[in-house]
Amino acid sequence: MENKSDSIVNKVYEFRVLKKMSQSDLAKAVGVSKQTIFVMEKNNYSPSLLLAYRIANFFEVSIEEIFTYEKGGSQND
Question: Are 53 and 46 in contact (CB under 8 A)?
């Protein structure tokens, strides 16, 4: 059962900056809009599994190096 405080955090921004790419460049490389990259970097959007794999493959790393599942605690919403 999904907990509302569970989340997927990512390091897309860090990987993109290390490669000296713009959000537009990365978006083109993985087949999405610049806006998708923008909201993903802000952790306001969790990508589909397919997109997560495209990003990991683009950076030539495992998916776990970029995307991490964080289980929520017993916080009150």
Answer: no
Going from the C-alpha of 77 to that of each of 18, 56, 59, 71, the distances in angstroms are 36, 32, 36, 15
- The whole-angstrom separation of Cα 29 and Cα 42 is 19
Give per-residue pLDDT as tens, 51-74: 999 999 999 999 999 999 998 864
| Beta-carbon contacts of residue 31 (< 8 Å; ≥ 6 apart) | 54
Taking CA atoms, 54 is separated from 21, 29, 40, 63, 74, in Å, by 16, 9, 14, 9, 33
Q: In 3-state terms, what secondary structure has residue 60?
A: coil
Say what the pTM is: 0.84
DSSP 28-45: HHHTS-HHHHHHHHTTS-
CA–CA dist 50, 52 (Å, integer): 5
